């Protein structure tokens, strides 16, 4: 179901992937710095979640400024929270690359208000912990403040997320967290010798089983 979500004087394009049975939990999903909500990995994950009983709302927000992207994410979150069509008990924020930074930023902002039990957790696909070859500047400030469960799915050969560095940040985080490494995958989750579908199957299954652990979904 395509929707347009008011955002300032503009609209954000978004698509609901709706499960057959009424869903009590949802996932809001957004893309990285390039591309949009129709990025194949997001389409694949949304379809997988919906087929396993989890509502998924994915949206496009062009803009290379994390604060702007976070603002858009917050708007989509409010939209879903107030939606009469989909009354959800809770939601997970998820993003790919820059989208996961925006999601982390929103969770940190809202956790300072302390009134938000609606957000159940954060899913970071290819979290861009640092710029390529610039490991000295880590983008970990939001992660260290988050309290809700966090799942990282990253490639072990990601040039924007060195394995040891992410493990180091994770060890300092106060939140319950899990890292799933996709062996030999780069930032775009490409792995030599494996098809995109094969890699996506691994990612989708990991994300869903983690969601299930955190909300005890009845796995079909």
From TrEMBL:
Gene3D superfamilies: alpha/beta hydrolase. It holds the Pfam family Abhydrolase_11. Residues 27-209 form the KANL3/Tex30 alpha/beta hydrolase-like domain. This is Testis-expressed sequence 30 protein.
């Amino acid at each position: 179901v395509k929707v347009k979500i008011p955002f300032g004087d503009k609209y954000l394009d978004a698509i609901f992937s709706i499960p057959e049975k009424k869903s009590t939990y949802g996932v809001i999903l957004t893309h990285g710095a390039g591309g949009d909500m129709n990025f194949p990995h997001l389409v694949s994950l949304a379809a997988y979640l919906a087929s396993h009983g989890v509502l998924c709302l994915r949206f496009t927000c062009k803009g290379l400024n994390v604060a702007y992207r976070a603002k858009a994410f917050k708007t989509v979150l409010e939209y879903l929270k107030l939606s009469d069509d989909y009354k959800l008990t809770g939601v997970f924020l998820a993003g790919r690359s820059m989208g996961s930074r925006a999601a982390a930023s929103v969770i940190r902002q809202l956790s300072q208000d302390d009134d938000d039990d609606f957000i159940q957790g954060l899913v970071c696909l290819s979290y861009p912990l640092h710029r390529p070859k610039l490991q000295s500047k880590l983008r970990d400030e939001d992660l260290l403040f988050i309290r809700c469960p966090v799942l990282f799915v990253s490639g072990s050969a990601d040039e924007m997320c060195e394995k040891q560095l992410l493990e180091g940040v994770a060890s300092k985080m106060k939140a319950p967290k899990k890292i799933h490494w996709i062996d030999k995958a780069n930032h775009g989750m490409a792995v030599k010798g494996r098809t995109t579908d094969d890699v996506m199957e691994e990612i989708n299954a990991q994300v869903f089983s983690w969601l299930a652990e955190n909300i005890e979904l009845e796995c079909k």
